[in-house]
Every structure is written in C-alpha cells, then in structure tokens.
Write a structure and sequence with these properties.
Layout (H helix, E strand, L loop, with lengths): L2 H4 L8 H24 L19 H11 L1 H4 L14 H6 L2 H10 L19 H15 L22 H11 L29 H4 L4 H10 L13 E2 L5 E2 L5 H13 L16
Antiparallel strand pairs: 1-2
Helix pairs in contact: 3-7, 6-7, 8-11, 10-11
Length: 275
C-alpha cells in the first residue's frame, strides 16, 4: 500500500459509508414529506385555538348571522318572520349608531332581543360595530332603488290620523291584505298569489312595533313582492294604483294599524289551562 494512501484514510472511497449516508438522507426526506402531507389529510383537527375571522368581513359576518340572526330574519337575510335585512336601500337609510343601538339593546315592543350589554351570551360593542360593517359590505352594495321615495326610516313628525289611514289602507293595501284569508270559490281554482294575509290581526300586531310597520310600508318587502312607498299598489278592483304614498300617508297607515293592536281578538282567546 502506498504510504500516502494510508496517511489519509478519509480520502478512501468506502461504499458502505456512502450507502449509509444516502439512506439517512432518504429517511429525512420521507419524514419531511410526511409532515407536509399530514397537513392535507382529512380529519386533521383545526389549530387550537382556531383562527378568528373578523365579522367585518363577509365570511365572518355570514357566520355570525347564521348563528344569531337567521332564525328571525331569514337564512340569507330574506323570507324570515322579521324585517328582511338584505335590502341595500334600508341599510343605507339607517344610521350606523341607530343600527348599533337596535342590535345591542333590542327593540322595545317587539320580539327583537338585544345581543350586547348584559345579554346572556352577549357580544362586545366592538364586535357589533364590526358586524354592521360586514353587513354593509355583504348586502349594502345592492342596486340603487327608490322604493322608499327618500322618506326617513324613522318617523320625525307627530302621529298620524287613524281615519285617514283607514282610507289609504282600503285604497292601496286591503286587496293584498284582507281582514281574512279569502279561499278559492271554485274547485281547482288557484289561490291568489298576491294575497299575503291580514296585517290588521291584533295577534300579529302585538308581535311587532310601530317602527317595524313603518319600515315595511316605506321600504316594502321585496322578498314577498310587497311594494314600498313608491308603489305601484293593487286597488280594490284588482287594478294597478300608481299614485305613490306621501309622508303623511305613511304616518296615517302606521296610526291605523297600531289602532288595531288592542282590538278584540280575531279568534277565541282563553286563559292558560283552559281547553
């Protein structure tokens, strides 16, 4: 053996050592790849704590809406028992501070609860304000309309006249909102799709506030085909009435409907425990 070769053993080519090194590299690469692949495996638990999505974004807003609002106002902001909030004209008419107050504190004389303050499971003021931003971002950019004729969302004047409201109701509302549901008179006759049922029933009126009545009259219910103050309306003979409501008409209609709230019930009302 050459002396120079034996004096530098690290320069010798050793097949077993090289194979071992390659094996270790392959093991390391496979472990790294396995860790990366595990991130994509189904069933992997989410990070703890889970990342928080701001309710000021569409995704965050929709999550909170589904959890806390959809039961009354509809899964997509429409077709619920409460006022449809997916209405850009309405959202842009209500100042943010008023919207904040309604969400935080609820609405008196209605079934709208408060979701902030001392409410059980309430949320912070900051989250409510971000929620309003998310609602505007998601639903406040719709097509411009003039269903409200620019009337303020909340009454700024004195109460209306009940008798005048009854006249306006008969001329522009009663054809779609009769006192009682009208059944088809002939076999096979389809029910009138424009008839939406009574809004003078005291049981219904006890569930909603005067402001709810005003909002429906001014902005309409697009999800149900109900026009706003701009009309057109359905007249007593079934014909179209194109004359829009005035601000006075709106106040008078609210006064007329509110006057029905404490009238004699439209059906039998018994004490608890009675049949």
């Amino acid at each position: 053996m050459n002396r120079s070769d034996s004096s530098h053993p690290h320069q010798l080519h050793h097949p077993r050592a090289s194979a071992s090194k390659v094996f270790r590299l392959l093991i390391a690469a496979s472990l790294t790849g396995g860790v990366v692949a595990c991130d994509d495996l189904p069933g992997k638990p989410p990070p703890n704590p889970a990342p928080v999505i701001s309710v000021a974004t569409t995704a965050g807003f929709e999550g909170m809406w589904a959890e806390r609002c959809s039961g009354c106002h509809g899964a997509d902001g429409q077709l619920g028992a409460g006022l449809p909030m997916r209405n850009a004209e309405y959202l842009n008419a209500v100042p943010d501070d008023d919207m904040f107050s309604m969400i935080r504190n609820g609405v008196p004389s209605s079934r709208m609860p408060g979701f902030g303050g001392d409410a059980i499971g309430g949320v912070s003021d900051e989250i409510i304000r971000d929620f309003i931003k998310g609602m505007h971002l998601t639903w406040g950019e719709g097509e411009a309309s003039d269903d409200s004729r620019g009337f303020p969302w909340r009454s700024t004047g004195t109460g209306g006249d009940v008798a005048s409201g009854a006249t306006v109701f008969a001329a522009k509302c009663a054809a779609c909102h009769p006192g009682e549901q009208v059944a088809p008179t002939q076999a096979g006759t389809m029910p009138d799709q424009l008839i939406a049922g009574s809004v003078t029933d005291p049981f219904y009126l006890r569930l909603i506030s005067d402001q709810h009545l005003r909002s429906n009259i001014v902005f309409g219910r697009k999800d149900l085909g109900m026009p706003g103050a701009a009309g057109p309306f359905r007249g007593p003979d079934g014909g179209e009435v194109t004359t829009p409501l005035t601000a006075t008409d709106v106040a008078d209609l609210v006064a007329f409907l509110a006057s029905k709230r404490n009238t004699w019930p439209s059906g039998p009302e018994v004490e608890d425990g009675e049949p």
